[in-house]
Amino acid sequence: MRHLFRCFVKKDVCNCLRRCYGSLSVRISTQTDQERRNEKNLHDLKPKNVSSKKRSFSSAPTEETIFKSPRPAEKLPVVSLSDYMFSRFNKFGSKNALVDDATGTTYTYSQLEELSRNVGSFLYRSGLRKNDVICYYGTNNPEFALLLLGCSSVGVILTTANPAYTSGELERHMEHSGAKMLVTVPPLIPKVQEAEIKNVIVIGGADGCRPFSDLLADDGKCFPSDVTIDPHEDIVILPYSSGTTGLPKGVMLSHFNVVANLRQFKHSTVTTTEDNNFAVLPFYHIYGMAPILFGTLQDGGTLVTTPGFDPEGFLKAIVKHKISQLHIVPPIVLFMARHPVVDKFDLSHVRNVICAAAPLGEALTNEFNDKRQKKIRQGYGLTETSPVVSLDDEDITVGSIGRLVSNTEAKFVNPETGKSLGINETGELCVRGPQNMKGYLENEKATKEMIDEDGWLHTGDVGHMGENGCIVVSDRLKELIKYKGLQVAPAELEDLLHKHPAVQDVAVIGMPDDRAGELPRAYVVLKPNLEIHAHDLMKYVEDHVSDYKKLRGGVEFMKEIPKSPSGKILRRVLKDQLPSSQI
Asked: Among 67, 196, 454, 486, which has the minimal tally of Cβ within 10 Å of its Cβ?
């Protein structure tokens, strides 16, 4: 799935930033070595003429303006994810590392390496070898960390599936990823059985399935000593993303990708051994998996897990565990800013709040900051960037997604000409750094569309570099719909609706919504002489997809779907037809 770590602002915020913020020092480089060494104040900088290879936009030489991170470059360790994390654990001894709010299960740092190696030994004993794939289909719990580290230690790849998946979606995920084993939780067993998946392990145990406790109790004697991991080449996790368009794709993240981004994130935020963080965002998503889970554990904080978001339970856990750091998404920001029940809880221990994964406007940001007397830091990234690209500093710029993390470059290009743009000039955001994925699993075409020959990852998001070095993202080229931070691929719903006997043609877009971000909305052309009610089509979709993919934006019937001469759906035309109150 795309995108977990992204924030958007409206165009009026862009204009406000241009007016309000002065120039600060940011490093900008172009293609020559001399220009790469230049560091100037942004108001003195002008694009330089250099030649550059382009991505099918134009063959003519163009200006190349590249923005470099203002943060100091980080020396990145070339090690496996498990070796990196194990080396960190040794510093924290018997301190609590993972605590399950639901069950009270606790693991100390001194236990993590041994138990992870026991998991690795069990997997090897079970016949799994380097580059084999295991799928995790479940909610948050401390055992997920042990599973992922156990896989990493023996070269097994872990792919993650959304627990909201239907049995059919899970089956497709297993088949596409090539997973040989499934690890899940008891509430999801019925869907696993419906998908007829064999070789199932259950955290907590269930009839007919092997309990995860067997993995932790392994004697470790089968742990292999001859597994060699190439951090740059070998894959450690395989989350799924829709990229900019289309059906979900397996994102191949190497050990080096993930470790590099952990180091980049580490120096963009501060976690101490005194911090208690709350993992309310899902581990199956790259945001929950990397910055929240391993970002906490690499610095000796305590991470409290919960299987899902429950409003009062969320607040009670913050108080009970004296949570000091919160990673949240806009719907939770809205809840914390406006729901009266929040006033009943003492949130004084919370010192650091980071929001990402979906749009967060300036108005709601300021409302939260004023109501809770706390400042939200915003971040941005993609599954394809492991995920962090940028993050606000302590001196927060409301309406921006912060400055580039270390060792990262960005440029903004005109999507029509390929020309790179300067300060305050709006174009598609492209990023380059050690966190960029290896590519999409068995999809070379999509990989080349995402990452060009010069290593630039084209995000599909539109924005500009502000004068203070903070990035503003104002729109997006991509067609992906974001419902409460979860990604819905229009192509998937269109493909499903095309199977309905009454549907001639269809297009799906995201309809703006204050609470959810966007709601999937379908425009349908019926076959001649056939009639069907909009609610019947909505029910048809509801019966075949996960809850978050429902057509909550409704169904509208049309005589013709607007398309370009090449057959591409003109979604912007459809969005322009929405009532002004919905834009």
From this structure: 196
